[in-house]
Specification:
Layout (H helix, E strand, L loop, with lengths): L2 E6 L9 H13 L4 E6 L20 H12 L2 E7 L7 H9 L8 E7 L7 H13 L3 E9 L2 H4 L9 H25 L2
Parallel strand pairs: 1-2, 1-3, 3-4, 4-5
Length: 186
């Protein structure tokens, strides 16, 4: 069974995107599609980016654990809100902290907003940052408009059937690229 890390990118008070991370953890676990771990950036106490992990003289245990987890998982789902057309500094901080860990790692992007477009403006800038460091960003996206109406705080969707159908397409694409990477490395 593949291992998938789910990055909950927001550290904002009252954040709504974390409910989508919880949803994916429940979805993948209940359908027995993958082992999951949520990497909640709100739980980490990373300093503002000064240098890549491999060049930091005394990295924190949290930094080392994050790098180990990203290295060991088969794929990543990033759940990020859109803030003023971009993604949060907490996510940029983590992307820049690591480097080799992202190389050819299959990554799926779920975007979230309170508005009607589901964070669609953030996708291009996030894809570009990940492509620049060699990540394998899958083509399927999972935008969530009006997140506070679509999910409750425990990650339960208001229209489970519709959201599960959309998630099925998204997750299957990530699983395809995980398998394709494994086949290519044999």
């Amino acid at each position: 069974m593949p291992k998938i890390a789910i990055i909950s990118a927001s550290v904002r008070k009252g954040r709504k995107s974390h409910s989508v991370a919880l949803y994916f953890q429940n979805y993948l676990t209940q359908k027995q599609l993958a082992e999951t771990e949520i990497l909640d950036l709100d739980a980490y106490n990373f300093p503002i980016f000064e240098e890549r992990l491999r060049l930091i003289e005394n990295p924190t245990e949290e930094m080392l654990q994050l790098a180990k987890t990203i290295t060991e998982v088969d794929g990543v789902i990033i759940v990020t809100p859109e803030y003023n057309g971009g993604y949060p500094a907490s996510l940029k901080n983590v992307i820049d902290l690591l480097y080799a860990e992202w190389k050819r790692k299959p990554i799926a992007i779920a975007t979230v907003s309170a508005g009607a477009f589901g964070g669609s403006q953030v996708i291009t800038s996030l894809q570009f940052s990940l492509w620049k460091i060699g990540a394998l960003v899958i083509p399927a996206m999972f935008p969530v408009p009006t997140v506070e109406k679509t999910f409750n705080e425990d990650g339960i969707p208001t229209d489970k059937e519709s959201i599960d159908k959309k998630a099925g397409v998204f997750v299957n694409e990530l699983l395809f690229w995980i398998k394709a990477k494994e086949a290519a490395e044999k």
